Amino acid sequence: MDNLTLLPKNDPSGLYRYRDGIYAPELLGAALTGLDFFTWLGKSPADAPTICKSLGLAERPVDVMLTLFSAMRLVEKRRNIFRITEIAREFLTRESPWFIGPYFAPFAERPVCRDLLEVLRTGKPTTWASRQDERPWAEAMEDDAFSERFTGMMDARGLYLGPNLARRIDFGRFRHVLDVAGASGIYACCVVAAHPRLKATVFERAPVDRVARKCIARRGYEKRVGVVEGDMFASSFPEGCDVHLFSNVLHDWDVPAVRTLLRKSCTALPTGGMILIHDAHLNRQKTGPLPVAAHSVFLMAVTEGRYYSVSEIEDFLYEAGLSGMKYRKNALEHSIITARKGRR
Predict the structure, then answer these.
(1) Is-contact 65 288, C-beta < 8 A?
(2) Are the beta carbons of 9 and 227 closer than 8 angstroms?
(3) Do the Cβ atoms of 303 and 319 come closer than 8 Å?
(4) CA–CA separation, 4 vs 17, rounded Å?
(5) What is the DSSP string of 25-54?
(6) Model pTM?
């Protein structure tokens, strides 16, 4: 049996940031070369809906773009109106003698930059790495080879985050964790490894459920971690679980889907049950942290979602019928938000 309670000696956060933030410079390039965004906003400070309407852009990617530029200190928001900052005015507006737009001109020919402009205009995700022969992520996961490759990629992060997550939550009186869309089951395995009284069930659609069974058996946890096949949107949540874990799940989906999932979870949980949302979260003002805002660009491009702020998640939980929200930090810019189902 793999020992999933161990942690490495060194902090790998910087290494993960190189990969996670790779699309952020591309979005800055797209805004400069494809939209001349800072020149426009410099002349016309506006709220997000006005920006969308005036430039013909979609709401979800504009939210991600404004969050990134806020974290970069290129825009600031006052009373819901976005304005460019002094550094943006000096270097990113066309009228300035120090305009550096021409320095970014080569970005206009980059496939990722072109894809990001399309996402900004349509709100629809593109393919992984701008490959024309590949389907969008949600469809690609229906393929056995892609889903196995994808879950292996997520395990490279989960093996570090999972043991940290398990140490930060008191599962004392709980008995059974439902790992919703748990991919390979790495988080379920890490949790039960650290808490011997717990059992877990991974809830995944085909063919990822088959990948999960193989991964769990390979780690040696098949007696304590089961797998139930089902679509989290179309199927009922498995019964008998008093903790629902959403680890790196909600960021793949837009607001209506997130609300649907949390309402379903609240309905299925027993009174006193807990929802545990483990993800990277933006701060309440949506001005950072910069690594989270940068990674959100990648999510905007290849999924239907983005990273949410702490206050957005708390609002979703409250709307779903949960209360007692608590926030805890985890590793790699990740954090944990918990809530309980009570009598209201």
Answers:
(1) no
(2) no
(3) no
(4) 23
(5) HHHHHHIIIII-HHHHHHHS-B-HHHHHHH
(6) 0.93
